[in-house]
Design goal:
single chain
Length: 70
């Protein structure tokens, strides 16, 4: 699961960086970045084994709570 989270976070950061550099987009607010990362995890979760899916759902919930407190 840790590899899943790290890979997702790094890929998301890379995509956000590419948007800034190549598409001249302005970085979003921290809240919107967290919500985009949540959507990425939700998109990838069907690829996980059933036990890992529940862990991914817990992570999405934790990220949602973190986004609400920012």
């Amino acid at each position: 699961m840790t590899l899943f989270i790290c890979a997702g976070a790094l890929w998301f950061i890379w995509k956000a960086r590419n948007d800034v550099v190549f598409n001249k987009k302005v970085l979003s607010t921290p809240e919107s970045l967290i919500h985009k990362m949540i959507m990425l995890v939700k998109t990838w979760s069907p690829l996980l084994k059933p036990k890992m899916k529940s862990m991914a759902e817990e992570m999405v919930l934790a990220l949602s709570v973190a986004a609400a407190s920012v």
